[in-house]
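Possible race condition, two jobs.
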Amino acid sequence: MILNVLSQIVGFIGALCLLLFGMNMLSNGIQKGAGSGLQKLLGKITGNRFYAVLTGIGVTAIIQSSGATTVMVVSFVNAEILTLEQAIGVIFGANIGTTVTAWIVSLFGFSFSISAMAIPLFGFGYILKHFKRFKIHNFAECFMGFALLFMGLGLLKESLTLGPAASRIFTAINSWGIAGILLGVLIGAVITALIHSSSAMTAIVLTMAANGSLSWELSAAIVLGSNIGSTVDAVMSSFGASVNARRTALVHVGFNVAGTFIALLIFKPFLQLIDFIVPLEPTANITTHIAMLHTVFNICATLIFVPFVNHIANLSRKIIPEETAAKDQHYHLPAILPHSRISADVYSFQIQKEITKMGAKVMEMFDSVCNSFLNPKNADEENERVKNLENYIDEMNGAITEFLQKCARLPNANHNDRIHFSALLHTTDILENLSDETCSLMHTVKKYVSGEGFDSNSKRVKEIEDYVERVRIFYEQVCLYFTVGFTQDEKLTGEAIEQKIDDTKKELKRASRKRLEAGADVKEELQYIDIVRKVERAGDCVYALLQGV
């Protein structure tokens, strides 16, 4: 007896793990195959709340994971790619999109032999994996994931045939009335939070209901509870994130809890509505009833709350107010740590924004160098500012590099993702080198402009000012290319500018040697040559940045 119970428990755990693994592989495969399309779709969301809802439905239906969609949305809000109002609409839609899995299981999971279809499907996916030349190998995991999902579902059907004792427990719970319904909601919420998948929980409920282990009322209660448990991914992703990201997670939790609460208030009439929509009695067609309940619940909850998106956003701002504490002088990466259920390509959106900020910090350093020539009295203050910026950029480089390395190691990162992450790593490294060169330049400029013989109106000072300004403008153009891209002609123009910078260095050094031969101050001229040399090295860094764009 004990061995039979243990065997059934172990079988259930194994089947559930196979089901979850299949769902994860399916989601990864679709995201790999879709490439940058999914995050581009999310990134183009406008202020139209209905378009945002439709986007949430579409993305979740494609990747088969509302958890992955909500984590993606929290990440985008954290990176300031989406506003709070846009994110709320997507979250509403994600809850509707997740019902697709329930319909797949309901329509295909119990009408024929799943294992007969799963094995050929897995084989087809494995073969497809080797067709890299046609760029369709990324979709191989879609078919393999579907196969494993069906195999896990088939094993669940076998393992969830409960014995008389377990059946009596569920019968007793069902007879408790309101208390039994609330317990069912709690069971659904807790188990979903533990397995991080409302779709898997729904599959379990469908299987147990099809086997006659769960009644219609208790199945409905567990499915409603699973909507609350599904918020765990968004909550976990918001830890350490920005204020708006935490507000997004709060809205997700509040929306699902409020929707479930409303459904419980009208529980009996709600079930009668499903019975009216779906033909046959629940006992004769219970899987369709459950799938329909899951769909109608999420659609109705969305229709109730979507007119109040702005009000919900304002309420979340009151509950989680802006942080008033003084900002830390150290850098904190606002990107959320890589999540294995999300396409690795999504993270490039967040990192590119941070690299753009890093480039802006370097531009501030250049501005300080130029200001030191215009206002020599402020050179010490500008030098201190540049030192602080250089330390901040070093911290940015370390945090971004570590994050990109984690992204490249994600299991769902394809070859193109890794190439892109490598390019971003290269760009970050060059920006850090450029900040070092600029800091060194600032140190030398400070000493130069603080000298007793410094004359801001002299010809040589004007020459070196123009030289620094030329490199600064060149860097400004390259930063623009990083944001909007560049043409081949613009790259050739950049090469000509870099060559002009090199030629100017030779001309300025030649002029300095002539002044030395004429008896000019040696210390002052050596500082002048050192500045010229460091400006040219900064120009080399800018040109290396252009080549890597």
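Job #2 (started ~2 s after job #1):
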Amino acid sequence: MKPRQAPADTIWFCIRRNAVARRAGWIHGDSLSDLRRVVGARPDETVEVCIASNFRHIPTRRFARTFYPRARGLIGIEIALGGDLLRLAPTRMVAANLGFERALMRFLEEREVSREDFAAHGCLRSFCAEQYLLFSGNQCQLTKLFRGGALIETGPTFERQFAVELADGIEGWMLSNLSIDGSLPYKYWPSRGSQSPADNAIRRFLATIALARLGELRDSAEIRDAARRNLRFNLRRYFQPIGNGRGAIVEHTGAKLGAAALAGLAIMENPSRDEFTAELAMLAAGVNSLVDDEHGFRTFFFPGDRDGENWNFYSGEALLFWAEASRRGIPHAPTLERCTTVFELCRKRHYRKRNPAFVPWQTQACASLFAQTGLRQFADFALELNDWLQTMQQRDGVDPDLSGRFYDPLHPEFGPPHAASTGVYLEGFADAMALACALGEARRASSYERTINLGLRSLRQLQFRGLHDMFYISKPERVQGALRTEVYDNAVRLDSAAHALLAAIKLLVPMNFGRQLSVE
């Protein structure tokens, strides 16, 4: 059986009042100029619109080739079986954060039909759709959308305003969502209007660092107080002595090198650092105890069978903690000679099996070590790493809202694209550009500038900015200024905001290397 044909001017509408859907459906042949009247929208209601076209039959065996995650929000899906038909417009799927696979499974579960039966008797169609918002008011205020939002445009040079607006939005989100006890929501589902039970200590301490740096940037007593409260909450929740003068950040999954290192960084940079000198000393001892003569660092205090996991992340986080402890003259900081030895071990292992996750943390550590020593091996390695990472930024040949993110489709083992990845990569590129400028490498600095600007464009595209991309958000204060995971996944995660904010701060106040020259 084939589903009934739909004319090219089929229109999906959804009337929303205060973001809540009041009435929705499909109509035919009505123009946008008269649509509000036709669907009966009140002056205080916004109308979400998709004009469907180019309906195409898709063999059920080719489902995954057509209805993949990146297509969500750009094409719609029509599912038919027997006399039942479900047609989902792209903006409806964006608003519900609904993937194609889940939409099909719901359809089958509700009808108690197996995937095999659907493959034999069901029908699928895809369709394109022009997307619009008709805002509230008596006038037809029309806004064209792309994947449920407005596109951010960019030029070839660093646009400081991108970094300013990015930081301003995240600041507002963090301050409005910081609880009385000092906690920030780790993960939030905007479409559900609810908080996820998931948790991650590393990502929570990233936000602590970001708040502390933001407080310094703004010279704000309010933000400094927020950073204090957040640090106290996180240390009360996760810090534990683990014996032999060592401390660790303990979660139900174990105790990670990276968590101890970032907690130590968070203490060093926090206005309440003097309150936690004992914890800092124990965290430093803990990090020191995981030094490894072959790999630079082991990665887990416990459980032992997880040791070695996430080495690309945790080794750089630990080396950055060491470098900053040395720069700040913290007791128990390793010598620069020891930092150099471990750096060389990490570099050697990276060359054996390269991974982009290694780049931003090692770049920041190398920048700090170069600032202290003037040794060109630190600067040269950081620049080499970022030259390589540049090749993974998507630019031309992708959907316009994806431009600037980092993803290598030839190496899916490097991980999926993600707001947090783009944010942390930009942290590294910010230091790499500062290094290139300090060393007089103008061409390289210009290349990094282009990469940074495209990356900022990507982050601004992911940021909840206003009515044009929050028309379906019932609790806007929970998301405004935060970042989606991807343009086709609106889940909000704390580390996405933290990395983006840290990158923006580094770009607004670049690292100063003075007149460092090589001493080699």
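Residues 77 and 240 are 51 Å apart (CA to CA).
Logs attached separately.
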